[in-house]
Amino acid sequence: MTAVEVHTALANHPFLAGLPESDIAKLAELAFEVRFQPEQILFREGDPSSFFYLIVTGHIALELLAPGRVFRIETVGDGEDLGWSSLLESVNKQFQARCLAPTRALAFDGPRLIALWEGDAEFGFRLMRKVVGTVADRLRATRLQLLDVYDKRGGAGQ
Amino acid sequence: MTTVLEPPAVSPSRPLMEPRPARLVGIDKETNDTFTLTLEPPEGVDARFRPGQFSMLYDYGVGELPISISGDPERPEQLVYTIRSVGPVTTSIVTRHPGESLGVRGPFGTPWPMTAARGKSVLIVAGGIGLAPLRPAIYHILRHRGDYNRLMILYGARSPRDILYKKELAAWSLLPDTQSLVTVDYGGVSWRGHVGVVTTLFKSIRTQPTETIALLCGPEIMMRYASRELQSRGIPKQQIYLSMERNMKCAAGFCGHCQMGPFFVCKDGPVFSCAAIEPWMDLYEI
After folding, report:
1. CATH number belonging to domain A3-147
2. For residue B69, what is the DSSP state?
3. How close, in Å, is residue A133 to chain B by CA atoms?
4. How confident is the model at residue B176 (pLDDT cuts 50, 70, 90)?
């Protein structure tokens, strides 16, 4: 992916929708393309946080490992982001990420991104609002999952 | 307040309260606890129905329940019901054998707004067994494909083994101008599809919100969150329709068991526009 293609991919990415061109340009300087193949592990639970990804195309599963079992708790795909814990200092990876289908993404080194927005608080605020949106969406989805609405007590819906 | 969407074209052609015997001709296991029953309509009874309507199924000596019709509205020669075994009556019904009879009353209730949806894209959002009352609407759209724009089917189930109509969902996804996406709340490592609640699929749809009609059926909490999210994505609440479930007895608006605010779900529903029913959906007690 050329620098122009990276810039275009960022400008069209739903996660960054609404950000000014100047923000896209700053992000383009840090972003680089990565590709993952099915079954490839992007990171494991407990790994030091490193990269934040904007998925262009593909399918990634977030998994939690327990003795003898793997819980696949969420999948993310086209137009979504992955690895927000990389943008928090001193937080290790909370889950394991496994590639399910050929995936193309734009990656950012977490500490470099943090350094960038610490040097430009307005830019950092705008980006952090996007990250909070992701965290809020996932929290809401997790709460709904915990409600287990398809349980028989929730009504058959028939 | 106007709530009835499209009055049923077909009214029960016999006394409302009299179950008529219908012979069970087939029973298919869909999941661990869910079965699809096919019955021959009672002799001399007009069994035509509109998508979204329901029947009262009576297991003689056990009890009677409202069950949505899940078959093809243009094949009235068979009555099809998909039933999840959740209590004594449903458990008894799904353990019947071909050749035995069940009592049938109906069809009852308001249908999905298939006429109002003409010329628009249709977004189907189903959760769990809520796909069953929506399947006749999908059959109708597929039989009259030129009358509708895009068809988007988003289906959420508890786990991969709880997915209804697996083969049909896969077949629908291959049709032109049709999206059929499935997600599960809990997936194992062998599941290669989406994991997450059904609202997480909304970002995958491509549609013009003001030109879209959304049809929702599933657990009420799911419908509540789904309708809110669809509104935040620009679909007006007047274009969102939900199928409600309440404890019904008479199915004809006489007894009041299924009252929900000013409505009787059996005769004013089960299909309501979100604009009409929303104020009553998040009340602890009505």
Report:
1. 2.60.120.10
2. B
3. 13
4. very high
